[in-house]
Write a structure and sequence with these properties.
The protein is α/β, with parallel strands linked by helices. It is 31% helix and 23% strand. The chain is built from 24 helices and 27 strands. The strands form 4 sheets. The protein has an 8-stranded mixed sheet. α21 links the parallel β23 and β24. The chain is elongated and about 115 Å long.
Length: 766
Amino acid sequence: MGKQKKGQQQAQLLSTLDDFTSKENWDKFFSIRGTDDSFEWYAEWPQLRDLLLTQLSSPSEINRESSVNPPESDAQILVPGCGNSRLSEQLYDAGFRCITNIDFSKVVIGDMLKRNVRSRPIMRWRVMDMTSMQFADNSFDIVLDKGGLDALMEPELGPTLGTQYVSEVKRVMKEGGKFICLTLGESHVLGMFFPKFRYGWKISIHVLPQKPSKSFKPSLRTFLVVAEKASPTTLGTILTSFHHDTLGSGDQARGIIEALETENKIRTNWSNGNDILYSLEDLKIGVKGDLLELQPGLRVQLTLGGPGQSRFCYKTVLLDALQNSDEFLYHCGVFLVPKTRAHEWLFSSEEGQWMVVESSKSARLIMVFLDGSHAGTSSEDIQKDLSPLVKQLAPANIEDAAQIPFMAASDGIKERKVVHQVTSALTGQIIVDDVVYEKVDGQLSQLSLPNDLVFRRLIFERSEGLIQSEALLTSEGSQKKVGEIGNKKSNSSKSKKKGTQKRKDSQLSVVDANNDLSVDHGYLASSYHSGIISGFMLISSYLEKMASSGRTVRAVVIGLGAGLLPMFLHGSIPFLQVEAVELDPVVVDIARDYFGFRDDERLKVHVTDGIKFVGDVSTKSHSSNGSRRELEAVGECIDRVDILIVDVDSPDSSSGMTCPAADFVEESFLKTVKNSLSEEGLFVINLVSRSPAIKEMVTSRMKGVFSKLFSLQLEEDVNEVIFALNSEGHEPPEPYSELQKLLKVKHPEMNKSIIDSAMKIKSLDG
């Protein structure tokens, strides 16, 4: 009968442990267990005593545990989540009298008070939630946690309660105090703990001796993690008192070793000044000086918010304007960068960020980068979540969060409809969408077109915010109708979109009312495409000579995209033999299925690597001696290229160069290009970068290889088309009129647009 009753009691106890954060469950647990049946987490006094007393005692008190009457300590000790453990009683008996125990279970606090009121009258017991303590700041020398943090950090609960608890521990801790935490050291616990105790803390980890056991099965080890409060700028690696090999090779050992190595790598990098990412708490304790004062030129990267603080976590950069100015409109402002534009050079580089600060007219700008976790959240909710956080980063003269304006980067899209999505093994996620822009600018705004312009875009998600290709959709489309329809703005397709309107993904009323629209290959929606063709005027005499003699000109475009540029060349310059080179067959299929791309005898597609293709051309051309005219005279095949255009995006736009990929501006490739060109050939490269240093680097390399360079600047210094001639040549007497005669464009307005661009081309010689 006694065994049956004991079994029922155990079952009742187990039923209370399904939620460690439930006050009612713990009240029931302690009521069933009773006052005298202590419950110990992880370790008992014999395993814990030596190591714990060493951490609690001053050097002169190290041997207190062996004393018959140990000296009393005046250290103020807090034991959160004390339960009915005997640890506090054992510490009291070891001479630590100033102990405050808290637990949110009134049952256990009542029982423990009764158990100790006579034998340990100085010890204090209070009913209190450890995640929201009612103590003044800097109240305790020691906070001793025996499994409390682990209980709050159960994986299904998430890190919110654990984060709140740790913040409270840091708040109530005195300078020089210690947070001593007994834990199993699980990765999700250490993953929260280590970042919270980076700046201003010294951390050491110790392993407790295992309790003797007859079982051959290895048990989990218990670790004692000590975080000692130091000066705000302290940042050191985590020290361990054990060799990693002594932990064994189980999951627990591997997890804690990996967590230690990862964290110490971060700390070492930060100590060397590399990739430092602060927390709001770091800045508030003065790691970067007094935040209440503006510090001209200050730039700090930090993580803002998170569990226990806000609904979302935000990657943030705080920047104080480079110099004080009376022209500031705001003491402090917030600038939201959407996920689609976060990797643009303007927002991802220091140089670009300072440009944003200047244009914002803010003395302090808090640049907040939104990501996938914020998708579907309204700007109002984001602002509401951020307001109390950014208020803590504002300078002293900001008294109300309402005084901090919120600004945002946007692409100016009024309506958007996704037409097709696919994931390619080479390119990643690819999206085809139809859009309506709030405003149409660029070259199409100058043309005689209807007000409601419809555009189709090709987007590579790997280059967030980059519009790979953009086509105008009209009822006079040159190809049969493909897919569904949408609407547009008309700057360069390979550029970053900007604007002031919030995008709305929705059914497009304009699209739904115009299902007969299709891609019109007689228009170039992108100004840089017109710019590329305008450079043909540099070799217009050669082109005219080839056309008049009935010979073809070989033009190669590296990077098919939606096929818009090759299709326009094919339709507008009859004597061109156009070849497009594209690495990804999925992109070729999309160009055909959604953008009306069609190849024929004069327009071919090579599915191969662009650099390899040019290398093969160079090898074949180099093996053929003599000029083009001499080779043609003896009937030899001509492999050289007359016009070579590089129009590819970079997978790594954070490098500062959105187009092209870095390999296409390496000196070795440029030399290969030169060898592959005919004597009077033209090399064209679309360069997209906001960095003057990168532009100068590319130009310098090209000058070292080619005889003459020319440039066409587009789109507020973002797009620049660079033209390189393979020989000195001579500028045609009337290059613009010669080019105009060569172009057989469908829409006369496009002819004018191309010639206008040609007139803006400038020499880079000298």
